[in-house]
Write a structure and sequence with these properties.
The protein is mostly helical. It is built from 7 helices and 2 strands, in the order αββαααααα. One of its GO terms (biological process) is cilium assembly.
Amino acid sequence: MYTDMDYEQEPEVVADLELEDAVVDLERDDSDLHKVEGRMAPFLPQPEDDAHPCQVVQEGMEPVGPWAQGKADWGPLAGMTGTRPVVDRYSITRYSVPEWRKNNLDTFQRAAGDNHNAGMVDFNSKACMQHVAAEADKNQADCTARLEQRAMDLHRWLAEVRKAHKALWDEIQDLEKYRARLRRLLCVLTKCANVAGECLDLRSKRCDPDLVRDEPEEQLVKEVALIKEVRGLIKRCLLRVEEQQRSSKAAKARLSTNWSDKKEAYDIDSLGAGLRTADPTALFYEGATRFPDSQSTTESWEAASREDICLSENERAKSVMLRNLIDSTVQDAARDLRQQEARVDEAVQRRVQVMTALLQELENQLALILRRIMETERLIADLKRALRQLDMALKVAQTRLSTRMDRTRIENCRDCPQYGLVDEVKSISEQCSALLGQLKQAEDTLQSLVDTRNHLEKDIVQKRKNLYLDRDRIQVIRQHYPPAAALTGLH
């Protein structure tokens, strides 16, 4: 169950083994073990067997039977010289009795030695098993503690990575809201540009006398330029948001990979820490003790984890700074747009008031001109009537003079009535000339008044049209200008 395990035998175990060896030797050397009634067993060597082989009398051996072939003699030197009698299937006298007893003793001694060795092996094996089991349990407990500590470290780092991942993900979501806010603001700016552009287009339709670059025109042009500038600023902010989102998502991907790897490593180490010898999942694996080249060290692993967390924190800090910058930028842009809108509305309102006052004055002048025309026409009629009356008086005077020309001879004299009638005709002629002059002036004045009336009427029509554009069209269109909340992109 425990592979690749080395140990050193302890001194206490060696002492116990030596003591056991001594006990076994004492048991083996006990001379009373094979004694029968105080004497050695007959199947073991006897005292008389210790004599020198040369001193033993050779004993002759009779043939075993008539069927035995050859002479089967035994000699005491046979064992030393290696010569044995020829023995066939019917002979059993190849060895001597002392040799047989010595062979029995050798057998017993070999059995006793093997028994002793077996006892030693049994004792040493049990002691070794106990030592190995204790050492293996200790090593397993140490490795379990290390795995548990590693799992705790992984859990701590996993919590930090999860916290950093959640913070970065929340920041990505917040920045995504700002991205949508900037897109809404671009749509609102498009509406603002349409309002300002339509106002400029309507004011370009004014009649010639009023087609001037007045204050509303200047403010509208400034508003269009401001909207264009704000649009460019918002687009640059949107590009920065998209770039920051890419960086944040890349850091989040690294955190996700780190989180996944740490979760898998935590599960593996937790499973390994809970693995025991009785578990059926504990198997042999070849090459389990190898060190892969791609394996990281503890320092590099911790540095990589800290680097990923620091990278995510840096990206989150950049995102927060960008959101703060967008807030201030949008607030300033909205304030500038609202101020410019107010200036445009005030300029248009003042222009409407001026045009209203001008139109009222023109109408008053038109009424005065009409009254003057009426009076002048009446004056012309009076002058013509006066001229007709003078014509009648001239006729009377000329008739009188013509009648007096009919006087005969001496009666046809230049008397006072004659001079009086001549003076009367002359006076009437002068009066007619004066009245004709006044009539001419009156008629010229009437024509001038009529021309002025026509001009006033035309001017009034133009002013009413221009006032309609500023008051009834532009001011109504300006009411559709986005509110302050829309200019910040919040709605």
